[in-house]
Specification:
Distance between the termini: 39 Å
Number of strands: 11
Structural class: mainly beta
Largest sheet: 7 strands, mixed
Shape: globular
Radius of gyration: 13 Å
Order of helices and strands: EEEEEEEEEEE
Number of helices: 0
């Protein structure tokens, strides 16, 4: 198991940008598929983005494609989510997730397939 901690959230005006970080400890993330999910108040947790072990493949929800970029630095044991052109609808708690046994890309968007989760960081976008 790996311990994940998110950081970088905050309050930003619509059109602004934030860069979230997810730092891991206990295990290297080299062998993990990593992902970001978010959960708005009163809603289900939803997929945002995922990245393969060596950054060869990335996956994005349609709602963020072209605005958000996921990346990873395995040497630093860190995953990032760069969020640009933020909208009020992006307001949510953002969670980092990891899975060491993810080998089917049909499942990268599914919350239930990830084993380890951070505690989340709040992102609030004002209009």
């Amino acid at each position: 198991q790996v311990h994940l901690v998110e950081s970088g959230g905050g309050l930003v005006q619509a059109g602004g940008s934030l860069r979230l970080s997810c730092t891991a400890s206990g295990r290297t993330i080299r062998s993990y598929v990593m992902a970001w999910f978010r959960q708005a108040a009163g809603q289900e947790r939803e997929f945002v983005a995922a990245i393969s072990r060596t950054s060869v493949s990335t996956y994005y929800a349609a709602s963020v494609k072209g605005r958000f970029t996921i990346s990873r630095d395995n040497a630093k044991n860190t995953v990032y989510l760069e969020m640009n052109t933020l909208r009020p609808e992006d307001t949510a708690v953002y969670y980092c997730a990891a899975d060491p046994r993810m080998y089917n890309n049909n499942y990268v968007t599914l919350t239930m397939r990830y084993d380890d989760w951070g505690q989340g960081t709040q992102v609030t976008v004002s209009s």
